[in-house]
Design brief:
The chain is mainly beta and about 475 residues long. It is about 5% helix and about 50% strand. It is elongated.
């Protein structure tokens, strides 16, 4: 009988400790992902084991030992016993071979000290999905190969998600993963995804205990057991629970078990719950012009679920959006440099008057009526993709991508939409086909607010071009 043992794995995640037992053979073996296995295998197939033959191999192992401060090399000879399987092929999933049967050698992994040791095998009549790194006559399969129940579709099994090492435990609030600083009086969701390491269907139990720390005492907030079962032909099953906390410090312990099986996993740690920052009476982010009692960096505001357009920077900082939509607060001197790298401006409409001059103007040229008309614009909350002139409609067309609401301040090209000798000039403006209001800063400078998702602004002049 081939010996197997458990190696404890400890994972530290921001105040939460996860202790698990990974079922491996001898050395620490880290399985590859199904995607990587499929990519690196010469062939992948499903078959039934028709017969098992035991083979013996004479091996030698070389390693160094140190005695009395002197290192010497030791050569160790040993006999390794491995199973050889005759497999009747049911279906190839990658790189089909011509034969209907094939012999496969039992998988091995790196052992201690330096040996290749077997990782357990299969029995006659087992239906197995084999990953084969190389068809070379020896045909040793990868240790990630697995037994697959007869009712399971192999192609669908390959599409099933799988956890390759530690199981996945996460805490969330309002759908946002968090580890600490949860908001009071809102549900906290706890989710534990476990890879059952079998497709046969298996159950496990989760014992949860959460307590609120009050001085030297603990007040039990939740104490329950959850029973869950994995579905046949699926690797992963999920246990989830939630509770609504009040503000304070909490400790948590979760332990899993599978019937009489040894091992299991323990998650323990602590987390903090703070008052509801969205409450009007306890807001950490008062309106512009109010005194800020406590400032919180933009990334923390974002993680608390505060909408991007409501996230606030200090009065001496400028809010911008990175390529992935995450907000940042930067100095006015840094903002134009980041804008050149593709970051987006986010200016509050109420603060536009005092902040828009921080934006570097963008120059544009329109070729129309046999001449070039140059001017400039400044924009927040959007990127201008194109500016063109529609002579028939006597309008300036601005195509844009606007993930945020913002303002376009644009200088109208002299002589294009208006006749310089005729003043005052007037315009009307359509945002995606709907007329909107705007502000005229000067006869030819317009300040145009637009909403999230606006794609087209059409600025229509006061006269038909070519007529006096």
């Amino acid at each position: 009988m081939k010996t197997r043992f458990l190696i404890p794995i400890v994972v530290l995640v921001v105040g939460i400790t996860v202790i698990t037992s990974a079922d491996v053979s001898y050395g620490l073996w880290i399985p590859k992902t199904p995607e990587k296995l499929f990519e690196q295998s010469e062939t992948v197939f499903v078959g039934t084991i028709a017969s098992v033959n035991v083979l013996e191999f004479e091996r030698s192992n070389t390693h160094h030992v140190e005695e009395n401060g002197v290192s010497r090399m030791v050569i160790e000879n040993y006999t390794q016993t491995l199973d050889e399987y005759t497999v009747e092929i049911e279906e190839f999933l990658k790189n089909p071979q011509e034969s209907n049967t094939i012999t496969m050698l039992e998988a091995t992994v790196g052992g201690v000290p330096g040996r290749n040791v077997s990782i357990g095998g299969f029995e006659s009549d087992d239906r197995v999905l084999f990953y084969v790194p190389k068809i070379d006559g020896i045909n040793q399969y990868s240790p990630e190969s697995f037994k697959i129940p007869k009712q399971c579709d192999a192609k669908l099994v390959l599409e099933q998600p799988k956890i390759t090492l530690a199981n996945d435990f996460r805490m969330m609030q309002d759908g946002i993963p968090l580890q600490d600083n949860f908001t009071a009086n809102k549900p906290i969701q706890f989710v534990y995804d476990k890879d059952m390491r079998t497709l046969e269907g298996r159950s496990f139990d989760v014992e949860i205990s959460i307590s609120k720390m009050i001085g030297n005492d603990r007040e039990i907030a939740i104490n329950e057991n959850i029973h869950t079962e994995s579905k046949p032909c699926e690797w992963i099953t999920t246990a989830s629970w939630e509770f609504v906390p009040t503000a304070g410090k909490y400790s948590m312990r979760m332990h899993t078990s599978e019937g009489n099986r040894t091992g299991g996993e323990t998650v323990s740690g602590s987390f903090t719950v703070i008052e509801d920052i969205s409450s009007p009476t306890k807001s950490l982010f008062p309106l512009h012009g109010n005194q800020i009692g406590k400032y919180m960096p933009p990334l923390k505001q974002f993680h608390y679920g505060i909408p991007v357009d409501e996230i606030q920077c200090r009065t001496d900082m400028q809010k911008m959006l990175k390529h992935d939509g995450i907000p940042a607060c930067v100095t006015p001197s840094t903002a134009p440099k980041l804008s050149d790298r593709g970051w987006n401006w986010v200016l509050d409409l109420e603060l536009w008057e005092e902040n828009y001059l921080l934006i570097s103007p963008t120059y544009y040229v329109i070729n129309a009526n046999g001449g070039n008309y140059g001017s400039q614009y400044m924009i927040s909350g959007a990127i201008v993709n194109d500016i063109s002139f529609d002579q028939r409609a006597n309008s300036l067309i601005v195509l844009m991508s606007s993930p945020e609401r913002g303002i376009l301040q644009i200088v109208m090209p002299s002589g294009l939409l208006h006749v310089p000798a005729q003043a005052p000039f007037s315009y009307f403006i359509l945002a995606d086909g709907e007329e909107i209001e705007y502000e005229k800063i000067s006869p030819i400078v317009l300040k145009i607010p637009f909403g999230i998702g606006t794609e087209k602004l059409e600025i229509i002049g006061s006269h038909t071009h070519g007529q006096n």
